[in-house]
């Protein structure tokens, strides 16, 4: 992890009528960092992520993602990031090869680049014999691994993962995190939301949102020391009680 900022957020807010979903949050994320963005359902983390990936305009505040301003350069933000949604976003009725080709085209890759990337991706995942299999026929764990790999096709500086391991078994979760570590080691920044508190332990730093505000931002180790507990789940529970 370097000290080069890849995300810079200052006083970012989002209102829906009189309801404040995201309330004046500020934080930075650095190149090559695995940054955990945590919070209970309704805490505002998904709304905040939507602003950072350029699909929801902030009510107020500023955010720069991969050197582009989310307020004025949202389309450039989208082109320079990878994104894996909570709901599986690939096409079940297309083959693995067809999905890779389709998304490679969306990301603006040439035919040769798509061909090279497809070969590399299939080799890395060990799916040589499954290339022409419908994605809908794959187990969920393989769908998630494929979706993550496709989000990295265009070599983005940062990839946003929204609850990437929801519903998969513990072994697949661990394998998925090994993929995340490998990508971060290459210098890609990983911005990940998760409700699994044990996964928060894998992050370099975590932000914890409660009722639209960031109530804590530190490394898991330092947070556990600060709150005198042994797990991130206990940190989360203490923070929630303090706000109440």
Automatic annotation (TrEMBL):
Domain of life: Bacteria
Keyword ATP-binding (UniProt): yes
A Pfam family it matches: ABC_tran
Protein name (database record): ABC transporter domain-containing protein
Keyword terms, alphabetized: ATP-binding, Nucleotide-binding
Alphabetized Gene3D superfamilies for the sequence: P-loop containing nucleotide triphosphate hydrolases
PANTHER family hit by this protein: ABC TRANSPORTER G FAMILY MEMBER 20 ISOFORM X1, ATP-BINDING CASSETTE, SUB-FAMILY H, MEMBER 1
Annotated ABC transporter domain residues: 7-236
């Amino acid at each position: 992890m370097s000290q080069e900022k890849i995300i810079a957020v200052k006083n970012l807010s989002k209102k829906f009528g009189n309801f404040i979903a995201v309330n004046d949050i500020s934080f930075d994320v650095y190149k090559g960092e695995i940054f955990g963005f945590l919070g209970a359902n309704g805490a505002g983390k998904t709304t905040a992520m939507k602003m950072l990936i350029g699909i929801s305009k902030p009510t107020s505040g500023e955010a720069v993602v991969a050197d582009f301003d989310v307020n004025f350069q949202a389309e450039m933000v989208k082109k320079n990031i990878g994104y894996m949604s909570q709901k599986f976003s690939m096409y079940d009725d297309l083959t693995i090869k067809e999905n890779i080709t389709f998304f490679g085209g969306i990301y603006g890759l040439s035919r040769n680049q798509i061909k090279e990337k497809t070969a590399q991706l299939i080799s890395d995942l060990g799916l040589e014999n499954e290339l022409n299999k419908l994605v809908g026929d794959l187990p969920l764990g393989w769908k998630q691994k494929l979706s993550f790999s496709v989000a990295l096709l265009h070599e983005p500086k940062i990839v946003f993962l929204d609850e990437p391991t929801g519903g998969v078994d513990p072994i697949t979760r661990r394998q998925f995190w090994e993929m995340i570590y490998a990508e971060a080691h290459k210098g890609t920044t990983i911005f990940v939301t998760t409700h699994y508190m044990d996964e928060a332990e894998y992050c370099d730093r975590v932000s914890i949102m409660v009722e639209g505000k960031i109530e804590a931002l530190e490394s898991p180790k330092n947070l556990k020391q600060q709150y005198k507990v042994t797990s991130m789940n206990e940190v989360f529970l203490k923070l929630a009680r303090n706000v109440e």
